[in-house]
Amino acid sequence: MMLKSLREMEPREKGIIIKVSGGKDIRRRLLDMGVVNGAEVEMQRVAPLGDPVEIRIKGYDLALRREEAANIQVEITRGMLSRVKAGETVTVIALGAGWGLQRRLADMGLTPEVRIKVISSGRPGQVVIEVRGSRMALGHGVAAKILVAYT
Fold it and tell me: What is the DSSP letter of 97?
């Protein structure tokens, strides 16, 4: 289980809201907009200077200031392989790459529904993973194109 504040989420990460805190007025405003415990939220994008952030919640897009987003705790359920910490096990959901890279990854055993153990995720450097009993290293650019679910 990986917990983050909404402010720390990366684009394409998805999670479940665990806690909404903050001052009475801010908390009430967030709750009125549908930001409630148990709601699924997906980070859409972050503005170039980092403020505001755009999320998708309950089928609509919502822009929040970073201070507001810091009051929302999220359990991450989906993200990019390049962001997974060493020692965690995840399941591949999809490959967001062109057909050539998808084919190469499939030849290496990286297909949807396969479980991956992250051995090392050094930044900068390679992401070393274990797939079906074999270890391999991927560059961060390739790892960022692999969408995974936390298990």
Answer: S
Q: What is the pLDDT of residues 9-46, one digit of tens each?
A: 888 888 889 998 888 888 888 888 888 888 889 999 88
For 47-110, list the strands marked E by DSSP: 53-57, 60-64, 72-80, 89-95
Residues 6+ apart with CB under 8 A from 138: 81, 126, 127, 129, 146
What local confidence, expressed as pLDDT, does residue 128 receive? Answer: 92
**Can you tell me the distance from the alpha carbon of 27 to that of 136, in angstroms, rounded to the nearest whole number?**
45
Q: Is 27 exposed, middle or buried (0-12, 13-18, 19+ CB in 10 A)?
A: middle
Q: Which domains does the chain have, with CATH numbers?
A: 2-77 (2.30.30.90), 84-150 (2.30.30.90)
Instruction: Note the pTM of the prediction, 2 decimals.
Output: 0.70
